[in-house]
Amino acid sequence: MPRIIEITDFQAPELDVYARLTENQLLNRQDPENGMFIAESPKVVERALDAGYTPVSLLLERRHIEGEAREIIARCGDIPVYTSDFDVLTKLTGFALTRGVLCAMRRRPLPSPEEICRGARRIAVLENIMNPTNVGAIFRSAAALSMDAVLLTYDCSNPLYRRSIRVSMGTVFQIPWTFLGNTPGEWPDGGLTLLSRLGFHTAAMALKEDSLSIDDPQLLSHEKLAVILGSEGDGLAADTIANCDYTVRIPMAHGVDSLNVAAASAVAFYQLGKR
User: Fold this and answer.
1) What are the mean pLDDT values of the chain's consecutive 10-residue runs (275 residues total)?
2) What is the pairing mode between strands 246-249 and 201-205?
3) What's the pLDDT score for residue 93?
4) Strand ranges, E, within 107-234
5) Strands, DSSP E only, in the chain?
6) Lateral strand order in the sheet of 246-249
7) What's the confidence (pLDDT) of residue 32?
8) What letter does residue 254 receive in the DSSP assignment?
9) Residues 62 and 113 sit within 8 Å (Cβ to Cβ)
10) Sign of the CA dihedral with 25 first, then 2, 53, and 59 last
């Protein structure tokens, strides 16, 4: 049975996870087994539960106890359910954006890239994409448009940051993902070597004169293809482009020089995710 707890003191330590801890504190790199994240909205919390993540506590408007959150509460078992009226809960930073329900959940150990890629035919690789909104949007496109997995380089924003989860609409729980190594130095050389060993041809998304158009038939001829996307400002590193099998461009019109990386990912996944 859940333990319904009326909030009377916003300074209570048990509310730190919602109100005061930063994303890096929640990630807890020094003690990753105790890392946590925050899932927002009933749909996103349900997707996290479906994926097997363990809930620690819930924070929600009182009206949702017998409303939108009723089934979630039942699924979460004997955990604290902190509650109050909406006008009180708005004092917690960001709560107004949650559609009434927040859930603190345990992170899980990340699988290896080899495990993620086992059986995959189309994967996305994100190089140094640091904006959580872009990471979340890319995950949503990857899940919807036929990518089998997502790999991230060390300097990418974590997909379980609160904004990434929210923007992805919980698809970060629906598509396998992990990081390519634990240090910046493991990409691109080590990462590209690994992808080659796993049987993937690599397609670097970059606007270069000698690149292939995204609709070139060569790209769809490969059983395994890794679509590699670069950072918001600089794009892919020169070393990454030079060592990929293909450089691929999305043709532009009306003098537009490029797309936002999240928009580009949707176009790339739609075209290159075809089997």
Assistant:
1) 82 86 91 91 95 95 88 94 80 54 94 96 97 98 97 96 95 97 90 97 91 95 97 91 96 89 97 89
2) parallel
3) 42
4) 122-126, 149-152, 177-179, 201-205, 212-213, 225-229
5) 3-6, 36-40, 55-61, 80-84, 101-106, 122-126, 149-152, 177-179, 201-205, 212-213, 225-229, 246-249
6) 177-179, 149-152, 122-126, 225-229, 201-205, 246-249, 212-213
7) 82
8) T
9) no
10) negative
Count Cβ atoms within 10 A of the Cβ of residue 166 and give its class: 0-12 exposed, 13-18 middle, 19 or more buried: buried
Q: Which residues pair with 202 in a beta bridge?
A: 226
pLDDT of residue 86: 76
Burial (CB < 10 A; 0-12, 13-18, 19+), residue 56, is middle
Tens of pLDDT along 69-123?
999 999 999 999 999 877 777 765 444 545 678 999 999 999 999 999 999 999 9
Q: Which residues contact 227 (CB under 8 A, 6 or more apart)?
A: 122, 123, 124, 125, 147, 203, 205, 265, 268, 269, 272
Q: Is the bond into 188 cis (omega within 30 degrees of 0)?
A: yes
- Give me 20's structure tokens: 């005061």
The radius of gyration computed from the CA coordinates of the chain, to the nearest angstrom, equals 20
Q: What is the dihedral of CA 144, 147, 150, 153, to 10 degrees?
A: -110
Contact status, residue 202 vs residue 244, Cβ threshold 8 Å: yes
pLDDT for res 275: 73
Strand partners, 101: 60
